[in-house]
Amino acid sequence: MLEINQLYMQLPNMSIKLENAVLKPGLHVIIGPNGAGKTTLLHGIIGYGQQIKNRGILYNKRKLNDTSDVISFMPQENPRFGIHVDEYLRLTGNSNDASQSIARFSLEEFLDQPITTLSGGEFKRVLCAQVHHENKPVILADEIEAHLDINQKYLVMDWLKEEAKTKIVIASIHDLSLAMTYADSVTLMHDGNFIELTQDKNKLSEDKLSYAFNTSLKIRDVDGRLMVIRR
């Protein structure tokens, strides 16, 4: 269980304040327009950034000052070094065999390639494999679907949903229909404010969603999947 007792961040154009949020295993999705504060919130949870003014976070009742042994974080972009994919995967510090992680994301053909030669989508799969190999109890992912084609989007989201059976997964997602299809709970942000906080996706308000994105939106069930479309 991840408890965010207090998180206060001050930015030039907004502030983010979150108190008494409790997250259990599941896929917790953060949505909101560009500039809503999604990335900043994820940074605050891991303790990154000078914007943090107050931060009190517990994992299984233990205070988290250093999150590195508990949380795997996948940023929007990660620096690329002139090393091969197999070397990059070993940067996790996990000395166990990474073959399952490599196979999970179909990376066998890339192992001897330099990271710098990969496309954005291929590199994203390497980052996913790295997080899979770390095998930490909490996963944070920022814009998880970025750079992925439609097939790879579903592959990655299927993986996160599987991980969320036993782990706490927090992911910011731009694709609203993808978010609604996979989420267990939805947090809706706008200008640093929480319009909805860990809300059951089936109870998400269309009016609040429309307000946050400044356009008229509706949620519809299409063959068992929740889709967000313009009215």
From TrEMBL:
Q: GO MF terms on file?
A: ATP binding; ATP hydrolysis activity
ABC transporter domain mapped to chain residues: 1-216
Annotated keywords: ATP-binding, Nucleotide-binding, Transport
Species this chain originates from: Aliicoccus persicus
| Plastid found in the keyword field | no
Please give the name of this protein: Iron complex transport system ATP-binding protein
Keyword Nucleus in the entry? The reply is no
Q: Which PROSITE patterns match?
A: ABC_TRANSPORTER_2
Q: Return the Pfam families for the record.
A: ABC_tran
